[in-house]
Amino acid sequence: MLCRDTIYLLPKIAPFSFPEEPPFVGDLVTVQCAAGSGDVPDKMTWLLNGRPVDNVMGLSTQRQGRRVSVLTIESVSAEHAGNYTCLVKNHAGIVNHTANLSVNVPPKIAPFDFGDEPLNYGEPASVQCTILGGDLPINVTWLLNNKTVEVFADISVAKIGKRVNVLTIEAVSGHHAGHYSCFAENRAGATSFSAHLTVNVPPKITPFSFGDETMNFGEPVSVQCTISGGDLPVNVTWMFNGEPLQSYLEVLTESRGQRMHNLMIDSVSAKHSGNYTCEAANIAGRIRHTSVLRVNASVQCSVTSGDFPIHIRWLFNGLALTGDSGVSTSQVGKRSNALNIDFVEASHAGNYTCEAANDAAIVNFTVQLVVNGYLTMIFF
Fold first, then answer.
1. Which residues form the Ig-like domain (predicted)?
2. Is residue 337 part of a domain?
3. Which of the listed residues 101, 133, 160 is the one where a domain comes to its end?
4. pLDDT for 217
């Protein structure tokens, strides 16, 4: 009687591979492991990088007949990249075949921001766009309100390595406010992340002037301080010679909305001559604009009686007036002489004496001009 030994044949796996062109994130990927010869497999198992695929999210296997197992990835991601091994076991032993799956992975940007508080005008700003993941090379572009930052000469971008881009503004201003987007792109796709920059903008005053001409006593005058830029609310203050307006000046002010502020004088006099400043302030800062109001100061000395000829002259603090003092005199008929100061300044404060002389006598009369924060002329 003859005994024949049982012969077991190892399975033979038909070589398989993933597509030569790596799939993109989100693509469907399938691969088939077929044991076309040898004894029928008892078990067919898939491994990813040496570990069973049972616990890999988004990946499934299915046996088709006794000799085929299909691995499916419904939506491939970066976590699915690696070496896939098909293990086939029967009574004769175990065989395997491995194929590598590469995945085209788009960039992933780490969140960034400019901070919780708005920046003030003139402060520096910097923000960093870091690419946490994605295949190289990665092209990064910065946008401000959907415009490339390259059009802004005062915004710079520096590349640090292959995955970090830093945007810097040395001194922020109003036109820097808005949405900053870091746009990252590679062959697998594109992504972006945005952060908002808020800038506190100080006021801007449109220059104003009382004009080049000196005002005459009794004339009305007005100027308007217009806040042409800056964040609201804006607090506006008028000053005279560096101090808040005082009631004795009889100067009127009014506001028309938050950006137009008027100053009015119904009848100017010597006390109104000086520097008028409009100061505007908001949370970002303050700014001033000053205009000079020049007012003529004049007085007339009249001799009511006495023989002709009569000679009239003016003295200042007991001394004859000089030509460079800013004070002029003029004869008005035979009995009067007028003194005029085109623009009253502190140096004009003092005693002004009118001296009248004829063959019979010399007489005089003195008045005082006080310039002490305000201006007063005591008239004849």
1. 11-102, 107-198, 203-300, 301-370
2. yes
3. 101
4. 82
